[in-house]
């Protein structure tokens, strides 16, 4: 591995760790507000214009402030991670280090969905041998950034993903994932086979704010 690639890998690891920390703090702050039945627009004064006595106003305002700050900063970190992953991919291609055909699969004229996040939202916990997922090149441990038109922030639970697969049975779906920090791309066609599900993949949600 070249020193250039190692530098990209270290930077990507740092950015990914930072995003995970930010996601956790974001989730903690949202959890605190939701316990009080608050959102970012809920006022901290009562109908008479007096500060509410049933809440810790300072703590509520701090939670609101941190949520806004983290959401803004998170977008910047995601952009930096996307740039770093792009640089890693280009360096790997330049050095002939990309040897998996699935990583270089052409997407032809398939439309590319422009996601608003580069944060993985689901992980492949297990994959069945001979399944459509395995044949597509997916591997256990892949952290999926984009699955067709799905990406982080619009998949609240696994049922959303399952319904999406059913709706797109026999359709070729473009997948972008992180595999050992490196970006990989492959095409999965959800279809009936002699096993469970349409892909043979067991998915697991990755840290998302509740």
* Average of per-residue pLDDT values: 82
Spatial shape: flat
Percent of residues in helices comes to: 40-55%
The tally of structural domains comes to 2
CATH class identity of the largest domain = Mainly Beta
Distance between the termini: 39 Å
Radius of gyration: 20 Å
Helix/sheet category: alpha+beta
Largest sheet: 6 strands, antiparallel
Which second-level CATH architecture of the largest domain applies?
A: Roll
Fourth-level CATH superfamily of the largest domain: PDZ domain
CATH fold description of the largest domain:
Pdz3 Domain
> How much of the polypeptide forms β-strand, as a percent range?
15-25%
Q: What's the total count of β strands?
A: 6
Instruction: Tally the helices.
Output: 4
Poorly predicted residue ranges: 98-116
Q: Give helix and strand order, one letter per element, not per position.
A: HHEHEEHEEE
Oligomeric state, counting identical vs distinct chains:
single chain
